[in-house]
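To fix ideas, we reproduce below a protein record of this kind.
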Amino acid sequence: MTRAVDLGVIACEGCELVMQAPRDVDGRCPRCGETVRSRNPRGASRTWALLIAAAALYVPANMLTMMHTEQFPLRRSDTILSGIEFLWSEGSWELAMLVFVASICVPLVKLLALGLLLVTSHRGSTWRPRARTKLYRVLEVIGHWSMLDVFVVTLLTAVVQLGRFASVEPGPAVLPFAGVVVLTMLASASFDPRTIWDGAA
């Protein structure tokens, strides 16, 4: 299988211009001026660090309270899972499924998929490079949808403020949950998908 490096060409990470590989290490893109290099030398270690930090925050994000709601005379404090259970019991199973997929499944799948890409790339695996590249592209597309819970809490906090009758307050899980989402997005951006094809040469 022929690779770009075998043909002596390289793509700029900034503007994606394909050009002849520069002779010097610190070559510059003629279009945007970005430094061009065949591989990111610290990409894997940076991605691992961000991924481990996101995995560490995933537990408190799901164990701590996400939202405090008060509707006189009742007051509820819900984690993500208890909120999903409440929505299901109230008959809003479509919304419950949406929150479950966006807030539980998507971050977990991103963590596992990025881990898979890192391990297989590090080992120089020849296992289905095209499928792994598509997996990486899917992760890039769906990443921001896992912010659904944070958006919902922020929206409700701003809208549902009716004094003593009803109020919504964010819980301590909002910050670690947002941290998981941001860190996984940064990990995806730090991962160099070109390393997927190194073992397929």
The chain has seven helices and five strands. The chain has a mean pLDDT of 83. Residues 121 and 196 are 5 Å apart (CA to CA).
